[in-house]
Design goal:
single chain, about 160 residues, mainly alpha, Arc Repressor Mutant, subunit A, two-stranded antiparallel ribbon, 4 strands
C-alpha cells in the first residue's frame, strides 16, 4: 500500500475544512485552504475537486463561497477521503496490472492473490473506522504541528 501525495494532502485539506467548520459554519475559501497547508493554490484546487467529486466536500459559489463537508465529520472516514483523493485505498496488482494473464486471473492459481485481497479488506476496515472527527480531535489535542511544504504549520484553529 502506498499513500500518494494526493491522498496525504486530501486528508490534511479535509482536516482543515473540518476544523474551520467547527469554528464557523461558513464555507472555507480554497485559497485559505491552500495557504493553511503551504501548497500551491492550483494543486490544492485539483485535490479539492477530487474530494468534491468523491462526495467528501461540496463547493459553495459566490463571494462568500468556498468548500464545506458534505456530512458531519464523524460520518466521513479516512477511507472515504483516500478513495476520493486517490481513486482507491489499496491497489492490488493482480487486478490492475497483472504480471501474467493466466496466473493473475480470478480463477488463476496464484498463492498471493487471496492474501492481497485479505490484506486490502483489513486495511479498508481500519480506514473505515477512522473518522474525520477522530483525526481533528487528535490533531487539535495530541500531536505536534505538522510540517508540509517545508514550513512548520500549526493545525490548531
Amino acid at each position: 500500500m502506498r499513500i500518494t501525495q494526493w491522498g496525504e494532502y486530501g486528508v490534511h485539506l479535509s482536516v482543515f475544512i473540518a476544523q474551520q467548520q467547527t469554528a464557523t459554519s461558513a464555507p472555507v475559501p480554497a485559497n485559505d485552504i491552500a495557504r493553511s497547508q503551504a501548497i500551491a493554490a492550483d494543486y490544492a484546487h485539483q485535490i479539492l475537486q477530487r474530494l468534491r467529486k468523491g462526495g467528501v466536500i461540496e463547493s459553495v459559489r459566490g463571494p462568500l463561497g468556498g468548500y464545506r463537508l458534505t456530512r458531519p465529520a464523524e460520518e466521513i472516514t479516512l477511507y472515504d477521503i483516500l478513495v476520493a483523493a486517490e481513486g482507491q485505498s489499496f491497489e492490488i496488482i493482480c487486478d490492475t496490472k497483472p504480471i501474467n494473464d493466466l496466473r493473475c486471473a480470478p480463477q488463476g492459481r496464484c498463492s498471493l492473490r487471496d492474501i492481497w485481497h485479505d490484506l486490502k479488506d483489513h486495511v479498508d476496515q481500519f480506514l473505515k473506522r477512522e473518522t474525520l472527527r477522530s483525526l481533528t480531535d487528535r490533531t487539535a489535542s495530541d500531536y505536534a504541528p505538522i510540517q508540509i511544504g517545508g514550513q512548520l504549520r500549526s493545525t490548531a484553529v
